[in-house]
Specification:
alpha+beta; 5 domains; about 35% strand
Length: about 600
């Protein structure tokens, strides 16, 4: 165990984590130069296309240090985007140290700070590394000052590097060996291992990535899962190098994978403890908090696909992504589907794209909404994931609470005014304002999550020319003046189109929605009224005129009264149609309103 080092790389998105991981694999000769390709640990097509890491990866390397010893290094590569911060917390639970990577041109960003504090909470040794020092716009001295002032780390500990050019890689490896402590644990104690990730393999079944805390396990070991009490026999153990490679055993301090012919994907729970069935440990590893979905949306199979195909795809996908939640729901407009919970909008987009690619199914996603808490007058509190679940009788409701987040925004000072204007428009409450240096400003706000998930990302990137970055974490539920906006077509309420909105913004949202519906609902033989209202009070209305056969069009003189009688008859008929005729809304009408723009 003295020769094992477990570490992670944490950073803001696009600061060079995957490139640094490539250089470490190359320098330790884990991968030959012939096999090496860019973003070696980003195995998903979507990761390579977008240039972002989505799934954490655990890889084993052997390093001959300057002290003459050979060390086993376990690197756990983590994502940087705010939506995947859950993956970062899982990776850190399996490590003793972390490389904190900062871009020499951009300096400290919102997620650098967030991930730094996650590592501090886990009591990890942190090695600060300034990357991209080879770029002409690099300002390492400025970034060193930021690291000292914002994070409180010593400038003596900072390593200057360029992952792309291979500068500073040897110094980083020596720092890992000398500064990060070896793992603690007892090889003779009963087996205790933490599951920190998993995936589904068609041949092996469910494969679990584990960090062994105490004891050891090998093929043939009978294991028990703490949360369910189920027992399995281990068929294969090994590590990623970076391909899955079999080993004879895994012992205390090791990071690797196990297969145990586990058929049901739901048996492997990330954060669960594995122990020996014959000689079990008495206590489980304190599991990290399960991910709490922040954004909910309806997911339905599109035409040509069945609900069963969607169900199979989602159940298999759930093993690779422990953070999604799903339950069946029915929409009168679209049919049978799932209400799914996601960590954020990018997460939702990635899940949709991966479901379509990996399981060859086409899906429809409705507009996202957040979870609301409703206090009823009879003393009950209920959670609302879908606006249509809100009690019909408004008199039953005492108050509605919406989720607020703590929002950190780092922006160049020249875009400060526009950024603060946007935050005010999004109902943000300013808590802190400070300068990181003369060019960069840090803003801390409390804001409603529903405002952040709509179009905040696009707007803040647009007004800051892409330079502003932000990070948020859930704060609490707060009582706000919220109302449900109902949509009526010819006085008939359409549940699938209702949504919850702040009273101040209700009129504007209602206006936008009825105008959009007017454009997408096809004209009928009778007049169609499209209205939006709060309770029974209508606040926005549009009229779709009827299709009309103009019976007086061909009158070229002579007696017109007979034609006018026909016109009156036509009007009478349309009145009758209006009484009995129902507007059949096409699926496109729902989707154009429900779909995320």
């Amino acid at each position: 165990m003295e020769l094992i080092r477990n570490f992670s790389i944490i950073a803001h998105v696009d600061h060079g984590k995957s490139t640094l991981a490539d250089r470490l694999l190359e320098y330790t000769k884990t991968v030959s130069s012939r096999e090496l390709k860019e973003q070696m640990l980003d195995t998903l097509d979507i990761e390579r296309e977008r240039g972002i890491t989505i799934k954490l990866q655990a890889v084993r390397m052997l390093y001959h240090a300057l002290d003459g010893k050979e060390y086993t290094l376990h690197l756990i590569d983590t994502p940087g985007h705010v939506d995947f911060s859950y993956e970062v917390s899982r990776a850190l639970a399996a490590c003793e140290g972390a490389l904190l990577l900062v871009d020499a041109t951009q300096g400290i960003q919102a997620q650098t700070v967030a991930n730094f504090w996650k590592a501090v909470e886990q009591e990890l040794i942190i090695i600060p590394v300034i990357n991209k020092i080879d770029l002409p716009s690099a300002q390492p001295e400025r970034v060193i000052t930021q690291i000292e002032e914002i994070l409180g780390l010593s400038s003596q500990d900072v390593i200057l590097a360029s992952a792309k050019e291979g500068i500073g890689i040897k110094e980083i490896l020596e720092a890992i060996v000398n500064r990060i402590p070896p793992p603690k644990g007892n090889q003779d104690a009963p087996l205790k291992a933490l599951i920190f990730d998993s995936f589904y393999d068609a041949y092996r079944g469910a494969v679990a990535f584990i960090r062994v805390m105490d004891g050891s396990l090998r093929p043939g070991t009978r294991i028990r899962l703490f949360s369910t009490g189920k027992e399995f026999e281990v068929t294969e153990v090994g590590a990623q190098m970076p391909k899955l490679s079999k080993l004879s055993s895994l012992s205390a301090g090791d990071v690797g994978y196990i297969c145990a012919s586990i058929k049901d994907v739901r048996d492997i729970r990330v954060g669960d403890t594995i122990t020996d069935a014959k000689n079990p440990t008495l206590s489980a590893i304190p599991g990290f908090r399960p991910a709490k979905p922040m954004v909910f949306a309806g997911v339905y199979p599109s035409e040509g696909y069945t609900f069963e195909e969607l169900r199979d795809a989602i159940e298999k996908f759930a093993i690779n992504d422990a953070s999604i939640q799903f339950e069946t729901e029915t929409s009168p407009a679209i049919g049978l589907g799932y209400r799914m919970g996601f960590l954020g909008l990018l997460h939702m987009e990635i899940v949709q794209e991966r479901l379509e690619r990996e399981f060859n199914i086409s899906i429809i996603t409705t507009a996202p909404s957040v979870v609301y808490r409703v206090n009823l007058k009879r003393g009950q509190t209920i959670e609302i994931k879908n606006p249509s679940e809100l009690p019909e009788n408004w008199g039953e409701i005492d108050s509605i609470l919406e989720p607020f987040v703590f929002l950190t925004v780092i922006t160049p000072s020249e875009y400060l005014g526009a950024t603060m204007g946007l935050l005010q428009e999004k109902r943000g409450i300013q808590k802190k304002f400070s300068y990181l240096d003369k060019f960069t400003t840090l803003l801390e706000y409390e804001a409603p999550l529903s405002e952040i998930i709509m179009d905040f990302h696009d707007k803040i990137k647009g007004l800051s020319k892409g330079f502003a970055t932000y990070d948020y974490e859930f704060l609490e539920f707060r009582k706000e003046d919220l109302v449900r906006l109902n949509i009526f077509i010819n006085n008939e309420p359409i549940d699938a189109l209702s949504f919850i909105v702040h009273r101040e913004k209700a009129y504007r949202r209602a206006r936008q929605l009825v105008e959009k519906l007017k454009d997408v609902i096809p004209r009928q033989l009778f007049e169609v009224k499209v209205q939006a209202g709060i309770g029974s009070k209508i606040i926005a209305s549009e009229r779709i005129p009827p299709l009309r056969a103009n019976v007086t069009a061909k009158c070229y003189g002579g007696d017109i009264t007979r034609k006018k009688k026909l016109l009156e008859k036509q009007k009478e008929g349309k009145k009758r149609l209006k009484q009995f005729g129902r507007v059949e809304l096409p699926q496109e009408a729902f989707l154009s309103v429900l779909k995320v723009d």
